UniProtKB/TrEMBL annotation:
GO biological process, one term: DNA-templated transcription
Origin: domain of life: Bacteria
Organism this protein belongs to: Novosphingobium sediminicola
Protein name: DNA-binding transcriptional LysR family regulator
Pfam family, any one: LysR_substrate
Amino acid sequence: MSSTPLEWSDLPVFLAIAREGTLGAAARKLGQSQPTMGRRLRALEEATSTALFQRTADGFVLTDEGAVMLRHAERMEAEAQALSRELAGNEQRLEGMLRLTCSDWFGRIVLAPILAEFHRCHPGVVVETLTDPRIYSLARREADLVLRIAPFDEPEVIARRLMTVPYALYAPAGYGPDDYRSLGDDVPVVVMDTGFGGMPDVGWLMQSLPAARIVARSNSREMQAQLCALGTGLAVLPKPLGAATPGLVEVDLGSAPPSRETWLGYHRDLKRLPRLRALLDLMVESAALR
């Protein structure tokens, strides 16, 4: 063998010439030019320090050394094809784990049906859903996928808007606008905790009911919904959550609370991960149908 390294990409050229018998036919089979085929064959023969073909008037005929090369090259070709088939099969039978994080109500109301459908399609993928208030870092790989209402500005994150979530004001079932008008300005309300007091729905509520009396706070929309349903006070909630919570009715004050965008983000290094792509596609499809 010479010191010139063997180029694996030259083996398909060798196989094509061995099977077709001429440079022209081999070139047509591989979609390359005849001079290119000749140049790559010479490079392969130089790398092996062996004449692999006899040039005859009828075409190229394998030498003894070429016949040995053919046996090995065909085995390598078969292994490469088997690898391609196995990888393709793994993409169809997705396996592994995905960790995602979202708010509590979004996970229960919006995401759970999507994950149930995803499991039916890809039972080999285990999805771990985290709904605690902590902000998980995509850069540190604390999560594979993050869903949140704040846009992403990290340069390593690929983000897109998933859906627009409408909000509404809710009261306990059995209460109507007249019941709260009878209270005058002293309307009890349940709002976000002080750390989230600047959220748009809190501002809208206090502007719409400037003398409202805050009776409870929580960073959990689920908790706010339950407190409202139990008669503690009015609450601004995402409409999907309000519709799914027994014991609530919408209250119309003449204007609606501001809606919020839900964004999804994932690290750019994961953009070709098949199981993540499959989940993203299902999420986007499901969001479009809402």
